[in-house]
């Protein structure tokens, strides 16, 4: 689905809505043609080609107690060559090289190869969110029950120091999603959406949440978030189907109307502009 926006309210630097006309009148979204779907069998990964599988976690998640559908339990730090993955009671840190090499070992059961992680951190709670920062200096996790942020210093982890650097609470509310800022020079910023739709932005360098004019909750009734490519702004998909463009400090830049035929409660938002 593609759409453009006309007569929407926008402030300076509203890169995500650069198609907006600046004439007076009510906001209106206009439907464009459907985007072409492209399917191909020509892409693949030679290192994991074939039927062999690698069991990363020591024990699988229980079938009757799977993670919530909003959980994100795998993250990659490509420059460091690290992978972090969460199981039901453990956080694993592994090198991408060792995972790739694992596919060359003999299967232990059927076509499954058991993997032995270089670093295992026992978890006293079930993890629901795992994410490296864009500069790969922080690893952040959140609990399935109770939420909050537990922040690890990656350099210390590489020295087998597994204590958290610090923690930030979310008043006992679990997270729906955790969004690292994609810009390495703003990697200390993480956006988080709680299960009740509150948007907060954590500044890991300052070990605290960003405070806007209405407090630490920068926006309510949020379903999803997308950072701009340069990490200077973000767009929130709202529960009513609209979107809101803002700075990490909560300053509004544009209100984007709900596209025709779009159901309420947006599930995913993508920032397609590179100007901000």
Give a concise summary.
With 276 residues, the protein is mostly beta strands. 4% of the residues lie in helices and 35% in strands.
Q: What's the rounded overall pLDDT mean?
A: 85
Structural class: mainly beta
Largest sheet: 5 strands, antiparallel
Give unreliable regions as ranges: 1-26
The Rg value, from CA coordinates, equals 21 Å
Distance between the termini: 23 Å
User: What is the overall shape?
Assistant: globular
Count up the helices. 2
What share of the residues lie within helices? under 10%
Major sheet: arrangement of strands: 2-21-20-19-18
User: Using DSSP, what is the number of strands?
Assistant: 21
Order of helices and strands: EEEEEEEHEEEEEHEEEEEEEEE
Strand residue content:
25-35%
